[in-house]
Design goal:
The structure is a single chain. The chain is of the alpha+beta class. The protein has one domain. It is built from four helices and eleven strands.
């Protein structure tokens, strides 16, 4: 009996250690899986934005909201106004005006919004600084993961399953690059794309501790479309401006 009791005690101590390690292993597995999904999705968004893609309509299955928090500055550097533009698949508001044509119903609208320059002038054209006033843009996309379990992907229309799927935020920054030479064309035609992912996005609006930033230097102009009230921007890697 003594030997049995000692054996049970040893087994119990071992089980306690094993049970204590299991949650750590599960958390590490979950973190690795989420980081892999983010890395794969980052490639998709980086390629779509840097190439000026306008036909990536599959993104409508995953991007469910985009917000641009903007601040309008005067030429003296003071703040004139700040507000936000909001876009979903069923509604779109730009500078206080409803613009149904900018709803997230096609890939061009999604890529065009994520390509919004960090700085635009008072006429919404891309600019390299705000010395003469203009808009500072802070674009955030809310996304359900493109990679991951097939059961969560379209044509899945179960809202509960969709809400429980892995989601994240993307902070998209299209920043001008400071000229490294007397040639101003370098600054005019070179931009840095920074996509910062934060995850997981919770249903209550909170976000977890996951964070990763992906960068790419893109040579070419950012062109704007302003038809039918749309304010969309697209990289044109093969188009260059000649700056004085």
């Amino acid at each position: 009996m003594v030997e049995v009791a000692i054996s049970l005690a040893i087994i119990g101590i071992a089980l306690v250690g094993i049970i204590g390690v299991l949650p750590l292993g599960l958390h590490a597995q979950r973190d690795n899986r989420e980081e892999t999904v983010i890395a794969q999705d980052a490639t998709v968004f980086t390629e779509a934005i840097s190439k000026g893609a306008s036909g990536a309509n599959d993104l409508t299955n995953y991007v469910y909201a985009i917000t641009n928090f903007w601040t309008l500055y005067n030429a003296n550097g003071s703040v004139n106004k700040n507000d936000f533009n909001g876009y979903t698949p069923v509604a779109a508001y730009t500078y206080g005006t409803s613009v149904p044509s900018m709803e997230l119903t096609n890939g061009a609208n999604i890529v065009g919004l994520l390509s919004t320059p960090e700085y635009t002038d008072s006429n919404f054209n891309p600019t390299n600084n705000l010395f003469n006033g203009g808009y500072s843009n802070h674009v955030i996309a809310y996304v359900r993961s493109i990679s991951g379990p097939a059961v969560e992907k379209p044509p899945q229309d179960n809202q509960l399953l969709q809400q429980d799927s892995f989601s994240y935020r993307i902070f998209s920054v299209n920043a001008p690059v400071a000229a490294a030479s007397p040639n101003p064309s370098l600054q005019e035609n070179l931009h840095e794309l920074r996509l910062t992912f934060e995850w997981p996005q919770q249903p209550n609006g909170a976000v977890g501790n996951g964070r990763a930033t992906y960068r790419a230097l893109i040579a070419g102009q950012i062109l704007t479309t302003n038809s039918l009230g749309q304010l969309l921007y697209f990289y044109q890697p093969q188009s260059f401006a000649s700056a004085p």
